[in-house]
TrEMBL record:
InterPro entries: AMPK_gamma/SDS23_families, CBS_dom, CBS_dom_sf. GO terms for molecular function: protein kinase regulator activity. It comes from the Eukaryota. It comes from Coffea canephora. This is CBS domain-containing protein. The keyword Transcription does not apply.
Amino acid sequence: MMIEEGSSTPRSPEAKVGMQVEDLWDVQEPQLSPTEKLNACFESIPVSDFPPAPSSQVVEINSDSSLAEVVKLLAQHKILSAPVVDVKAPEDASWIDRYIGIVEFAGIVVSILHQSEKMDGSAALAFELFSESENGIGPAVAAAANGMSSPRYRSLHPESPTATSGDFFETLTSSDFYKNTKVGDISGSFRWAPFLALQKSNSFLTMLLLLSKYRMKSVPVVDPGEQKIDNIITQSAVIHMLEECAGLHWFESWGSKKLSELGLPLMKPSHIIKVYEDEPVLQAFKLMRQKGVGGIPVVASNGRKAIGNISIRDIQFLLLAPEIYKEFRSIMAKNFLTAVRSYLEEHQKDSPLLKNMVTCTRDSTLKDVIMKLDSMKIHRIYVVDGLGNLEGVITLRDIISKLVHEPRGYFGDFFDGVLPLPANSRV
C-alpha cells in the first residue's frame, strides 16, 4: 500500500492516478450514485496518464516469427499476448497498416489441439492444415477461425494416449508445423485477435470497459504522431493501480464492500469449469479453449476441493521443457502440477504454480481480494466455503467490471468492422 490515510503526496505513478480520481470524486454532483461518480471520474482522465508498462512487457512480434519463437518470447517476457507487426508494411505505414493483430497463448493452444487431433487419427486427419486454397489457408484453419464448432473438432479424445503422451509433445515441438508456421500465415484465425488500439486521448473509462466487458486481455495505446505503440495496459496493471489507491476515500468506499454484496462470484458452484486431477492435462487446455477462460482449477477426484490451478500460459511448460513430460506415458493434470513445480524449483524460477491455491470467501472484501491478486501476481482467486470446497472463481476482469459500467450508446461506431459485440451489449 503506497498511500496512508490523509496523505497528499503519492509515492508511485499509480497512486498519482488515484489522487486524480480522488480530486474528481470530491467535485462530482452530490445526486450521483457512487458508480456514476466513478464513471465520470474515469471518463475525465486520459489514458495517456496511465503509468507506462515495463519495457520488458511492451513486446512486438514480427509477422514472420514462427509459433516456436512466439511461445518462447511470450514465456520469456511473462506476457499472455503481443501485437503482431507486418514485416511487409512500408516504413512510413500508419499504425493501422503496421499492426495486423494480437497473438495470444490461447491461439497457440487451439493450434496445438488441432495437431493432437490429427495425430490421434480422428476424422480431422483428412484435413491438411495448410492445403492449397484460394487464400492459402486450409480448411482446418478456416474451421478454427469460425470458432471450432465442427463435429470433427469435437471428435478429439483428450484421454487417448496419443494426445496426452510425452511423445506427442516431443513430436509436435520438433515438427515443421511448429518450427516453420509463421504468425502472419494464420493472422485472423484461431484466437489471433484483431488489433484494437486506443489513442492517447481516449479515456480511462474506455480502457476499463475494453478490459472487462469486451474481454480484452491487454489494450495497446498508440501515439498517432509516432505511428507506433506508446503503452500496453493489461488487466494486471489496472489491478496494481487499484492496490496503490488503498487509503483513498473513493477506493475505500468501493473496496470495503464484501464480494457477496457485489454479486460475486458470478458463477454458481455447479457451473465451475474444472478438470479432475486424474484427467489428461490436455483436457484442461481444451476446456479453456471451449469455454473462453484463461485458467481452471484442478480438483481432487473425490470431491470439490481444488489442489491447484492451470492457466492458459502453462502450455509453455509442455512446449519449452521436455524434461517435464519425458517420464509420462500419459500426462495427467496432477502429474503436470507436480512435474512443473519440481522443474521450477530446480531452475529457481518464480511462478504462481509454486504457490498454494489462493482462496477467499464470500465475506472477503474487494480490497482484500485485490491485495492478494496483486501481491501474488495471479489472474484469478478461488472462492471456498468453510470446508474448503469450491464455490466460485473471481478473475481480474470480474473486479474491473464492478468498477465501471457502460453508458448507453457509449462506444457508438467504435467497433464497426473490427470486433464482434458481446451478446448483452446495449451499444
